[in-house]
## 1
Amino acid sequence: MGRAARRVFIGIPAGKELREQVLEFRKRHDWLRVGWIRPENLHLTVIPPWLIENPESVCTALGDAAHHFSAADVEFTTVSTGPDAAKPRLIWATGKTTPFFSILRDELYARIPLERTDERSFLLHLTIARVMPDEQDAIARMKLRVPVVWSPCLRTISLYESILNPNGAEYRVLYEVPFAMNKQQ
């Protein structure tokens, strides 16, 4: 009898600096009626969720891929609603996407036997809150668009398990590995 399939995804965790910047934004906007993402769950998704019986098999591929990449500097410039401004589901920080992400994603798909379901180019975004369905219209009318200057260095990549429950997804890090050539702090 095989193991039960687990829902996993690959992401880059928000480091301490970025988590602190998000928390500061949250404090200044605590009046928003949204479900804030817990700081330990803040991440940039590189490969979206899929089901797998043996997530350990992905760990080797993830470690091998991370060995070929340096830590990456990114720049978030705006916090706004998304992905559809008329019916927002998220509040997210966005910024200029660098080639790092598409190259990393391609490298991971080459190493992990996984059907690639999304050919869209990578959108640099960090979800910081979820908009409740009964608040979508009110949040949309706000036309939330706040300039930010968040320039963190992304140093690690993780395999996460996504556990769905009635209050939203809970994320558990199954494996985390630093990029091989990290910059000095």
Note: Residues 16-28 form the longest helix (13 residues).
## 2
Amino acid sequence: MRKFTIVAGAIAAVAFGGSAFAQSATGPSVSPTYYGTLGYSQLDQSDGDLGAVTGRLGAKFNPYFGVEGEASFGVKDDDFRVAGADGSIKHEYDAAAYVVGTLPINEQFELFARGGYGTTKLKRELSTPVADISQEVDGTSWNYGAGANFYLDQSNGIRADWTRRDFTESDAGEVDIYSVSYVRRF
């Protein structure tokens, strides 16, 4: 809960702090703007490193505050060998919703912080001489992170971000996700 409070405070500071600077840099926004992203995410966790294709849809209600949803599907598994048995960890999918605070630096560059809640599904498989074992693991998490958008023109840009997933189950641990994406504003 302490981490969630820190994340909420950071988002509020980014969303509402420095508004005079951001107002002069980008001007007022009178209607919501929408965006989508598509990119690659690297999931670094204690059990293995996995890769996923990640898509996001978002709405910015003003230059400083918005929401976004994301979904990822695994494309890179992690293989391992234990006591002569071959195994793998697969990222099936994840989905999450976020509140996003943005600090526009100029017309091309902005920083953001986000916090939200999500679900993740992994699959573990182990092939032994006796039997094949398969286990699906579902987990929910409080997520928080930060990143930046760089716009090449009015509609197209590049996004880089980091997100931490703190799983709600006491023994599930954490996962760090590093993403690079193409951004399209509508």
Note: Residues 2-16 form the longest helix (15 residues).
